[in-house]
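>> received
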Amino acid sequence: MKESAVFVNIGRGDLIKDEVLIEALDAGELSHAILDVFDPEPLGKGHPFWRMENVTVTSHLSSKSGEYLPRTIAIFRKKYA
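>> returned
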């Protein structure tokens, strides 16, 4: 991935290893992460993701609808364009 890449996980919390993602973000290998799912859930109050400026934590609110993808892309374009 490019250093300017934004990693989005709305699938499964166990898709990634938190430590690896934290290292990549701290090293500047990714610009941002948007995370909606965690392993375990809910994300613990003391977890580093809460304090990281280059991480957006959402509350497991992703869903499937005909408007989901267009709305999501519009939000990301507005925020990161």
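>> The helical segments are 18-26, 68-80.
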